[in-house]
Amino acid sequence: MPDPSAHSVPEPAADPLRDAARGVRLHKALAEAGVASRRACEDLVRAGLVSVNGRVVQSLPAWVDLDADVVEVEGRRIEPPRRRVCVLLNKPRRCLSTCDDPGGRRTVVDLVDHPLARRLYPVGRLDFDTSGLLLLTNDGDLAQRLTHPRFGVEKTYRAKVQGCLDDARLRDLLAGAHLAVRRDGRTVGVARAAAVEARIVRRDREKTTIELTLAEGRNRQVRRLLARLGHPVVRLERVRLGPIRLKGLRRGEWRELTSGELQALRRAARAPGRRRADDTPER
User: Fold this and answer.
1) Which residue among the candidates 67, 101, 127, 129 is catalytic per the annotation?
2) pLDDT exceeds cutoff 80 at 249
3) Prior bond to 61 cis, omega within 30?
4) What is the distance between the alpha carbons of residues 29 and 37, in angstroms, rounded to a whole number?
5) What are the beta bridge partners of residue 246?
6) How far apart are CA 245 and CA 190, in angstroms?
7) Mean pLDDT computed over 130-141
8) Residues 6 or more apart from 98 whose CB is under 8 A from it?
9) Is 101 a catalytic residue?
10) All structural domains of the chain
11) pTM for the complete prediction?
12) Average pLDDT for 66-76
């Protein structure tokens, strides 16, 4: 009788990248190596920009061992994470919150002369014309927690606006307002912005200086909220992120956070807050 196994189809070989026992999830390993936040690393994988041992990874989840595997992002090999650092920069205006710019404009990384500068990435973004506190780190997990609204890490801004912002307008600001939700450059809906904490620092008939504290980070939220009230922003500066305050640094200067500040920052990013509809970092 013919051997029935002679015509059987062999089972496909198991994909080693699907073996959870071999290491950690690929996007987590990339984030811990300082490539970007976990979410951004997921996007890099889905865009086909990540390879493991010469093979482009097509989907997630996947598991890797950075000590044993050759992992590359856009052709650049990713080394196992070393010392985790976080740098505080007093960002000047007219500076991009990115690592590089094809147009040759100045970026925040250009200002940080740190031994690990090539591995430091901005935590969230500040708009081109917004100054103040910006963190850069090679700790992707910390960056994710600091920028995702689920963790509710507060950010305080000082804004100088046109006109005299009266108490009635201030109450409107404290109550929150409906703002368009935008993703990938398109408006996809409308959601109510969370109420903010605010106080008047100084005001006269022509200008008002106000401090606002937010626990969410919708795109250009401060500028949009104040514009809705009829008081366009003239100048905007971020002065606090969680327990870290901007002090002792001139524009363009930076310093590494102390171990105590890092511990306080991680504690602030540990307890989840309420999830928001739009999780685009504040600009």
Assistant:
1) 127
2) yes
3) yes
4) 10
5) none
6) 32
7) 93
8) 107, 108, 109, 122, 125
9) no
10) 16-77 (3.10.290.10), 86-268 (3.30.2350.10)
11) 0.67
12) 89
